[in-house]
């Protein structure tokens, strides 16, 4: 397995949607569909017939599935940006374009399963990505970096062979810094305490190590939720809206379930109804969850604005 390229990713694979059931979609009426564009580059056009192969490829190379329509200029722009970045990143991920008019069954299946128009697929597991309609190119690139980190943490580090960039000329990924490798290995063996200690040591050596900050925040979230009964915690939060600990636990669970906006909403509501030390505790937790998700995520930027409004 190749070395991972960063700390524990802000986009966790746990809680992802299994696309195994979509690997062999029912053929559309009117006979078989021609195959999409040949999978020789970083961008392929998906049909009902070719989607199974795209999902299979996610075991060796990260895949980004994007739904688009020629009648929707915004979706076309998003797909063009993703295609440009797929080439710019030299095939480090495969962009699978799904034109909804030409592959309606795939589009409907992916959309209904993930609840998103763009999703990352790693080992057949789909992680919905936030809406990219208003995202800048830099924000999309930052989100793709998180996708690649998530894929690497799950052992998927292959590249798509490009006609103008032979695989033999692709430079090897640099190894992780020792403290990050130590943390990664600890996470792999489910020793979260050791992982947290490794990230803390990395921060002691370099307080500006943003990847260590994100890794530590992710590990702390995993530690807080490891022994929590989700049903009981949700019931407790619903029964006692004023119980701060219950609301903090609920926000953690929402984020672990990839319900990012819901997690932020829980804590923003708590900020608005608390004062003094309690409000500060909520603010600190919310900022920590921002770190887990990633500052480039549009949902984080929106929540930061809402937090500033609530505080001032």
- By DSSP, the count of extended strands is 6
The radius of gyration over CA amounts to: 21 Å
Second rung of CATH, namely the architecture of the largest domain: 3-Layer(aba) Sandwich
Oligomer: single chain
Distance between the termini: 49 Å
| Alpha-beta content class | alpha/beta
Instruction: Please tell me the total number of domains.
Output: 2
CATH topology of the largest domain: Glutaredoxin
Tally of alpha and pi helices? 12
Tell me roughly what share of residues is in helical segments: 40-55%
Beta-strand content:
5-15%
Strand order of the largest sheet: 1-6-5-3-4-2
CATH class of the largest domain: Alpha Beta
Protein name: Co-chaperone YbbN
Pfam family, one: TPR_20
What is the fold's blueprint, element by element?
Layout lengths: L16 E2 L24 E3 L5 H7 L5 E6 L4 H16 L5 E6 L4 H11 L3 E5 L2 E4 L8 H17 L24 H11 L3 H14 L4 H16 L4 H10 L4 H13 L3 H14 L2 H18 L4 H14 L1
Parallel strand pairs: 2-4, 3-4
Antiparallel strand pairs: 1-6, 3-5, 5-6
Short account of what is shown:
The protein is an alpha/beta fold.
Could you please describe the fold and organization of this structure?
InterPro entries: Thioredoxin-like_sf (IPR036249), TPR-like_helical_dom_sf (IPR011990). This is Co-chaperone YbbN. The chain contains 12 helices and 6 strands. Helix 9 (244-256) runs antiparallel to helix 10 and helix 10 runs parallel beside helix 12. The chain has 2 domains: 17-153, Glutaredoxin; 178-311, Serine Threonine Protein Phosphatase 5, Tetratricopeptide repeat (Alpha Horseshoe), CATH 1.25.40. With 312 residues, the chain is of the alpha/beta class. Helix 2 (73-88) links the parallel strand 3 and strand 4. It starts with 16 loop residues before the first strand and ends with a helix. The protein has helices at residues 51-57, 73-88, 104-114, 137-153, 178-188, 192-205, 210-225, 230-239, 244-256, 260-273, 276-293, 298-311, and strands at residues 17-18, 43-45, 63-68, 94-99, 118-122, 125-128. The chain has a 6-stranded mixed sheet with strand order 1-6-5-3-4-2, sandwiched between helices. 52% of the residues lie in helices and 8% in strands.
């Amino acid at each position: 397995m190749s070395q991972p390229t960063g700390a524990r990713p802000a986009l966790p694979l746990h809680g992802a949607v299994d696309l195994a059931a979509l690997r062999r979609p029912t053929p559309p009426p009117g006979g078989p569909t021609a195959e999409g564009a040949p999978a020789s580059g970083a961008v392929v056009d998906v049909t009902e017939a070719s989607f199974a192969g795209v999902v299979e490829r996610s075991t060796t190379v990260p895949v980004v599935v994007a739904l688009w329509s020629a009648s929707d200029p915004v979706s076309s722009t998003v797909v063009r940006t993703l295609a440009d970045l797929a080439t710019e990143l030299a095939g480090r991920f495969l962009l699978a374009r799904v034109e909804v008019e030409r592959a309606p069954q795939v589009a409907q299946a992916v959309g209904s399963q993930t609840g998103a128009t763009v999703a990352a697929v790693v080992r057949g597991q789909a992680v919905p990505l936030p809406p990219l309609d208003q995202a800048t190119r830099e924000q999309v690139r930052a989100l793709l970096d998180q996708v690649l980190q998530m894929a690497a943490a799950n052992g998927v580090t292959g590249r798509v062979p490009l006609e103008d960039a032979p695989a033999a000329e692709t430079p090897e990924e640099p190894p992780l810094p020792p403290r990050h490798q130590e943390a990664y290995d600890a996470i792999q063996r489910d020793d979260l305490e050791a992982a947290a200690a490794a990230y803390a040591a990395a921060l002691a050596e370099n307080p500006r190590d943003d990847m260590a900050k994100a890794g530590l925040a992710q590990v702390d979230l995993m530690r807080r939720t490891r022994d929590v009964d989700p049903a009981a915690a949700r019931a407790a939060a619903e029964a006692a809206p004023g119980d701060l600990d219950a609301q903090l636990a609920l926000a953690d669970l929402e984020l672990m379930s990839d319900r990012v906006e819901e997690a932020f909403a829980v804590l923003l509501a708590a900020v608005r109804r608390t004062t003094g030390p309690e409000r500060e505790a909520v603010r600190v937790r919310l900022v920590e969850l921002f770190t887990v998700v990633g500052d480039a995520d549009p949902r984080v930027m929106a929540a930061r604005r809402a937090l500033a409004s609530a505080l001032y």
